[in-house]
């Protein structure tokens, strides 16, 4: 037994309630089990129970063992004085409130069908990545796709909250936040951290002053990134050095220059080298002016995709690194990379902006964009596809990844409509 299952049993009242009595042998009727509390304090609030003919309205606290009340030091917390019933699996100790009065206790052990416990144990013991793998087909489609919709919204909420935290750090400056959030995802995972650091070193207000001069933006980015070689015979590299010496001194950036070893080139195809990505990032910044504003005003998916389908300056169309000309033309940012930036950068930013500005139509637009992008192909999405789930769009794959990571992997089956259905209903 654990508190997750105990909470599930209490919440849905999956126990024998006829002639119910407390452990103190007082008659007990449960009128309303209460609302599950996601915050600190007792587990359920606003419950209504009839004990020995007296109506009590208050909180319900659940523990596997009654003595856990003292292990969690509830006796020192006045918030628990409002507990009207202590629901436990094993009553190993009398519980006294902070004010000295005893808390009535209900022991559920012996009142719950063994089949519920067995079905839950079977899920927890399952070795498959998706615990209900063997039984998934027995659950109706409505539950599955209701969970899919819920998981997508939870993922969007979670990522939007990350944007919100960054916004608070930036003093509610949306343009700085959009610039930093975009920069972080231009690292395409392997170089997320150095890109993130770079956008903290160079504020958006500095970049904004030079959006009409691509060479100056490149000088700021490559210079602060520490990637411009010293004493190079390369004409372009010397131009960047000259520009950066002036701009770096003007904006007091010279003391914050990064080290070349912070950037990762290994295990990357040349088209994904940080030098190429920085050149593309510079081009995007020079094209957009303000990244956030561009995605807010882009109504059609083709518009936002075109925003990311960017090339780079002439030098970086012929070079992957400084001073070494490539044999073939260096490609612009591809469709797959553009889609990743929409999914990971544009959509969360738009959702966060939608929430703060109370513009739900922007949330609808974000979901529409996801529905226009093909699903990711990875280990998690292939697992779901093998179970018969629809995996066609990024909206599907993003939801399935969230479902897998937040429910299947930590075995939070009772919080999932599919797992909950399998625990409470006999298998066919």
From TrEMBL:
Record-linked InterPro entries: DUF2851
Pfam family, one: DUF2851
Source species, domain of life: Bacteria
Protein name in the entry: DUF2851 family protein
Species the sequence originates in: Dyadobacter sp. 676
């Amino acid at each position: 037994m654990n508190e997750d299952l105990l909470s599930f049993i209490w919440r849905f009242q999956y126990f024998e309630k006829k002639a119910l009595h407390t452990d103190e042998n007082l008659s007990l009727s449960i009128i309303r089990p209460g609302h599950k509390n996601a915050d600190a304090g007792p587990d359920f609030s606003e419950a209504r129970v009839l004990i020995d003919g007296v109506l009590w309205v208050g909180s319900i606290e659940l523990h596997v063992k009654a003595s856990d009340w003292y292990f969690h030091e509830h006796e020192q917390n006045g918030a628990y004085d409002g507990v009207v019933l202590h629901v436990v699996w094993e009553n190993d100790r009398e519980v006294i409130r902070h004010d000295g009065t005893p808390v009535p206790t209900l022991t559920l052990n012996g009142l719950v069908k063994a089949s519920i416990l067995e079905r839950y144990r079977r899920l927890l013991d399952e070795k498959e990545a998706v615990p209900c793998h063997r039984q998934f087909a027995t659950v109706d489609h409505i539950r599955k796709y209701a969970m899919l919709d819920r998981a997508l919204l939870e993922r969007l909420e979670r990522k939007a909250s990350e944007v919100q935290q960054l916004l608070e750090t930036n003093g509610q400056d949306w343009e700085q936040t959009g610039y930093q959030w975009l920069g972080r995802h231009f690292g395409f995972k392997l170089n997320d951290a150095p890109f993130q650091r770079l956008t903290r070193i160079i504020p958006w207000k500095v970049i904004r002053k030079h959006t009409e001069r691509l060479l100056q933006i490149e000088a700021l980015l490559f210079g602060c990134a520490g990637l411009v070689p010293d004493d190079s015979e390369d004409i372009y590299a010397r131009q960047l050095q000259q520009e950066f010496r002036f701009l770096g001194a003007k904006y007091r950036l010279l003391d914050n220059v990064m080290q070349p070893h912070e950037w990762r080139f290994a295990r990357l195809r040349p088209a994904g080298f940080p030098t190429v990505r920085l050149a593309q990032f510079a081009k995007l910044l020079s094209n957009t002016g303000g990244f956030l504003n561009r995605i807010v005003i882009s109504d059609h998916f083709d518009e936002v995709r075109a925003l990311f389908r960017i090339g780079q300056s002439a030098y970086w169309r012929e070079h992957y690194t400084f001073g070494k000309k490539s044999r073939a033309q260096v490609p612009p940012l591809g469709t797959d990379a553009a889609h990743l930036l929409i999914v990971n950068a544009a959509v969360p930013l738009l959702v966060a902006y939608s929430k703060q500005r109370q513009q739900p139509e922007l949330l609808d637009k974000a979901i529409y964009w996801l529905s226009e992008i093909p699903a990711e192909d990875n280990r998690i999405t292939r697992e779901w596809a093998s179970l018969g789930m629809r995996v066609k769009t990024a909206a599907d794959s993003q939801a399935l990844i969230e479902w897998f990571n937040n429910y299947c992997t930590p075995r939070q089956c009772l919080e999932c409509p599919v797992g909950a259905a399998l625990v409470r209903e006999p298998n066919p």
